[in-house]
Design brief:
globular; mainly alpha; MetI-like fold
Length: 333
């Protein structure tokens, strides 16, 4: 009987995973259609940036015919999607280099910034959220709630400029531009320390603006579980309120926390444009900003597609973590 129950649960899990994968593939297909249509329907000819002003118009027209610029939109989409499946995202108009290579070169810098911000904000937010739930309506809880509302209200660019003004210009504690010191050629640990110093300000700017929303979610989820009967039962069995919340309340609040954490990774990547532009951090955000200024459509499409894929993967990861954290979810499918 136990073996039958295990095999039944495994079957439901496989069915749940396959269903979520199918939905993810359909979402990705729809996103690629929208991205391609929006970019291709932009007015003007992006290839004008690649030629000289005295180029023969007849020669230009011939080349546009050869690359299929005047093909119907569905045919252009099919060719682009086929190339994208082979990781061929075209050539950058601005850099005259493969888009995939340029994104790969910059992605590591953005990932370093995003993961550092994610780690800082997660540790701070969950710690503050748990303390606020343990001591609701206390002075500390009210101060933290007020700071969280302020953090949600302050735009990231204003906070970044404030950090540059105070810690960069006034106190001169940290560098606030680029990823490495210009003119220096550090190696080994010296280079790692130099990058770490340049990482502090953009990481803190991105992390503290993200911390506020996670604090509110953690606090609200835990306060909602405090009034549940199982918390009262645990306390009746001898556990203190603090022990009951940490042991049992956190387990039931984890679904809401998983949602926020999984959605924050793509938010950090897509929101990197502002942070990276402010701190001149050579990542995907800066690359995308430059591509927009130069009307580099292949680059814009490649970066947008990459972010869309990451968003869908994070949503899929959240669904799978839901099913692992609460088996009832996959049983309801």
């Amino acid at each position: 009987m136990q073996i039958y129950s295990i095999s039944l649960n495994e079957g439901k899990m496989k069915k749940y995973i396959c269903k979520r994968l199918g939905i993810a593939v359909l979402m990705l297909l729809g996103v690629t259609m929208i991205i391609f249509a929006i970019i291709r329907l932009q007015p003007g000819n992006p290839f004008l940036m690649m030629v000289q002003f005295d180029t023969d118009p007849a020669f230009m027209e011939q080349k546009l015919q050869e690359i299929g610029y005047y093909d119907p939109l569905p045919i252009q989409y099919g060719k682009w999607l086929l190339r994208a499946l082979h990781f061929d995202l075209g050539y950058s108009i601005q850099y005259n280099a493969p888009v995939a290579n340029l994104i790969a070169d910059r992605f590591g810098n953005t990932l370093l910034l995003a993961l550092t911000s994610f780690a800082i904000s997660t540790v701070i937010a969950i710690g503050i959220g748990v303390l606020s739930a343990l001591y609701p309506n206390s002075i500390m809880d009210r101060i933290m709630t007020l700071l969280a509302f302020i953090g949600v209200s302050i735009p990231v660019f204003f906070f970044g400029l404030l950090m540059i003004k105070v810690l960069g210009y006034d106190l001169k504690l940290l560098p606030f531009s680029g990823i490495e010191t210009i003119g220096k050629h550090y190696e080994g640990m010296a280079r790692a320390k130099d990058i770490a110093k340049h990482l502090v300000l953009p990481a803190l700017t991105s992390a503290l603006t993200q911390t506020a929303s996670l604090v509110r979610y953690t606090r609200a989820s835990l306060l909602e579980t405090v009034s549940e009967d199982y918390i009262k039962t645990a306390m009746a069995k001898g556990l203190t309120r603090k022990q009951a919340i940490i042991r049992h309340g956190m387990k039931n609040a984890k679904l809401a926390i998983i949602t926020v954490l999984c959605n924050r990774i793509p938010d950090l990547l897509s929101g990197a444009l502002i942070v990276e532009t402010i701190f001149v951090w050579p990542g995907i955000g800066m690359l995308n900003y430059q591509a927009i200024l130069k009307q580099d459509y292949p680059m814009i499409m490649g970066i947008t597609l990459m972010i869309a894929v990451i968003v869908i993967i994070c949503n899929l990861a959240a669904d799978l973590l839901y099913s692992a954290a609460d088996p009832r979810i996959r049983c309801e499918e």
